[in-house]
Amino acid sequence: MNPLDLNPFFFPGGPTGCLLIHGFSGSPPEMRPMGEYLAAQGLTVRGVRLAGHGTTPQDMARTGWRDWVASAEEGLQKLLGRCDRVFVAGLSMGGLLTLHLAAHYPLAGAIVMSAPAYIADWRFRFLPLVQSFIHWVTPNIESDLTDPEAEGRYWSYDRLPTRCVASLGELLRLVRGELVRVQVPALVMQGRCDRHIPPDSAQIIYDRLGSADKELIWFENSGHCITIDSEREAVWARAYEFIMAHSERQL
């Protein structure tokens, strides 16, 4: 039995809202502690569970990037309907979805954490060609979490539908082309110990953003999932500072 709650979450609060989006093959638990922290500061917080995630790999196999975007958009619309201003924060693929929303919706700000700027593995480009006869792939990246207890805060699939990994590539290419359209204030954060994405991803995203108001922060002792790793509380606090600074400017 899984001790983690894989369901989406909602914490009602004040007029400033924050949407939290988990990563590819992940689930809401990697965002819930951050959500609880932000809610304790008085924010209204919603954490989505992306289509096909947090259930079974078979469920995920029936989805693609458009479904994941739709899940994020649904969560955003719910917050826009009750909050005066809404920020979006996403981890990994959730960061890509955050950037996509920022390019298309009137967000108060975007917080992008551990998002990939490209995929370094050369095999990745062949997935669209082999997905019709190789249906599943097994993640082979060792954990880069620096907090030994962080594994207990994380849940993801142990096998992935090939078509979904290929769809992630489509989303990445789409978002990379949209970066210049992101005009909202942006905070980009990444761990120095991140072994899941290319190490220059945060810098590339930061450089290509169209935002005039943007900031890049590195966390020296964090792996990919900075929201639950050794410096998680500093990550949450920095996100809250960003939200508060840009909320006050809109009053």
Shape-level CATH architecture: 3-Layer(aba) Sandwich
CATH topology: Rossmann fold
From the alpha carbons, calculate the radius of gyration and give it in angstroms: 17 Å
- CATH class placement: Alpha Beta
Count up the helices. Answer: 8
Whole-number count of domains: 1
Q: Which strand-content bin applies to the residues? A: 15-25%
What string gives the helices and strands in order? EEHEHHEHEHEEHEHEH
Q: Outline, from the CA principal axes? A: globular
CATH superfamily: Alpha/Beta hydrolase fold, catalytic domain
How would you portray this structure in words?
The protein has a single domain, classed as Rossmann fold (3-Layer(aba) Sandwich). The strands form two sheets. The protein has a seven-stranded mixed β-sheet with strand order 1-3-2-4-5-8-9, sandwiched between helices. The protein has a two-stranded antiparallel ribbon with strand order 6-7. The chain contains eight helices and nine strands. Helices cover 35% and strands 16% of the residues. Strand 8, helix 7 (201-208) and strand 9 (214-219) form a beta-alpha-beta unit. By secondary structure, the chain is an alpha/beta fold. It has helices at residues 32-40, 57-60, 65-80, 93-104, 127-130, 162-178, 201-208, 232-248, and strands at residues 9-11, 16-21, 44-47, 85-91, 109-113, 136-137, 160-161, 186-191, 214-219. The protein is globular, with a radius of gyration of 17 Å.
Topology:
Blueprint: E1 9-11, E2 16-21, H1 32-40, E3 44-47, H2 57-60, H3 65-80, E4 85-91, H4 93-104, E5 109-113, H5 127-130, E6 136-137, E7 160-161, H6 162-178, E8 186-191, H7 201-208, E9 214-219, H8 232-248
Helix pairs in contact: 3-4, 4-6
